[in-house]
Amino acid sequence: MAQQEYIRVPKGLKNVIVDQTRLSGVDPTGQHTIYRGYTIDDIGANASFYEAAHLFLYGHLPCEDELKEIKKKIDYERGNIPEKLFDALKLAPVTHPMYYGSYGVLLLGQYLAPEWDFSDETLYDHALKLIAKLPVIFAAGWHLAHTGTLIRPDPSLDHATDVLRMIIGRMPSKVEARAFESSLVLYMDHGFNASTFTVRVVASTLSDMYSAIAAGIGALKGPLHGGANEKAMVMLLEAKKQAEEKGVPLEEYIVDYIKAKLAKKEKIMGFGHRIYKLHDPRTDVAAKYIKQLKDGEWWLKVLKKAEEVMWQEKKLPANIDFYTAVLYYQLGIPIPMYTPIFAMGRIVGWVSHYIEQVKDNKIIRPTEEYVGPTGLKYKPMHERCKQ
Ligand code: ACO
Predict the structure, then answer these.
(1) What is the pLDDT of residue 49?
(2) 104: Cβ below 6 Å to ligand 1?
(3) What is the mean pLDDT of the segment spanning 316-325?
C-alpha cells in the first residue's frame, strides 16, 4: 500500500491557508478588510444591513427591486417566530444569552427544517430565515430571563432599528439605529475566523444549516473570539471606577491601568488579532459612530490612549471588539448581549460560508499525530489496580 504523505502545520493553523473564498478576507497589503471586493470602510459607512446581506448572499449590491425583496423577506421572517420557540425560552434558566442562540437555533431548525436538502431554494430561504430570526431569539431569551416579559418583533420597522428596540426596550433614535446597524455590518464576515471555520467544518459533513450555525455560536462565545467585546467593556468600566476613586481622568489613568495588567501578564481584551498586526480597519468605521453617540469625544480619547500604550508596550493594535464594546455601552445595551450582537451580524457571513462550502465540498478532516502510549493490553479489574 502506498505510504500516505502528511503535511505538518503550525499549532492553531496560524498562517495556514486551508481553502479559497469569494466572500471576504484581507487584501494583500494586510490593511483592508474586503467584503466581496469592497473595502469595509466603504460598506461599513454606507451600506444598510439589507444591502450588505444581499452583497454576501448573492455577490452584488442589490438593485431597487432586489433590495425591496430582501427587505420584505427579512422583515417578514423576523416577525414570524414559532410561538413554541418563545414558550421554550420561557422555561430556560438565566444564563449567558449566547446559550439561547445555540439551542434556539437548533429548535428553530427542528420546527422549520426537520428534513434538509441542498437545493438553492432551501439554502437561500433558510439563510434568510436565520439572518432574520436569530436576533429575536437572543432578545426574547434575554428579556424573558431578566424581566419575565416578551418583547415581540415589529416587522413594520427596519431590521436594525427593530432589533435594537427589542434589546434596549425603547425606540432608538435614527443616529443610534444607524450606529447599531453599521456595527452589524462590521461584524458580518471576516474570512476563516474561528466561528466561521467551525460552521464550514460542520457544513463539510453535509449536516444542515441550523446545526452548523449552532456550532458557530458556540465557537463565537469564547473570550478569545466574540466574547472579547464583553470582557473589554468590563475592563474599561473597572478602570473607570478606579480612576473615579483616585480622582484621575480615565483618559490618563488608563495608561497605568493597562501597564499594571500587563505587568501581571494579563491579556488586554480587545487587543491583538490573528490577521491584523498593525491596525484593524473596522475600528475606524466604529470610531465615526462612537463620536456621534453619548460622550463620544471623551470615549475616543480613552480608546486612543489605550491604543497608544498597548502599541508602546506590546506592539498590538486594538481590534473591532474594543470599539464595539464602547459603542454598545453608549447605546445602553446590557454587557452580556454584546457577543449575541456580534452573532446577529456574523450570521450573514456564517450562512454565506455554509452555502459556499456545500457548493464545492470536501469534508474537512485533518489528521492528528498520536503521541500517547501503544501496546497496552486489557486487564480484568482484579489485575488492573494492584499496588
Ligand atoms: N494582551 C496582551 N498580550 C497579548 C494580547 C493581548 N490582548 N494578544 C496577544 N498578546 C501577546 C501574546 O501573549 C503573545 O505574546 P508572547 O509572544 O510573549 O507569547 C503575542 O502577543 C502574540 O500573540 P498571539 O497570541 O500569538 O496571537 P494569536 O494570533 O495567536 O491570537 C488573539 C490572537 C486570540 C486575538 C489574541 O491577540 C488575544 O487573545 N486577544 C485578546 C482577545 C481578543 O481581543 N479577541 C478578539 C479577537 S478579534 C475578533 O474576534 C473580532
Answers:
(1) 98
(2) no
(3) 96
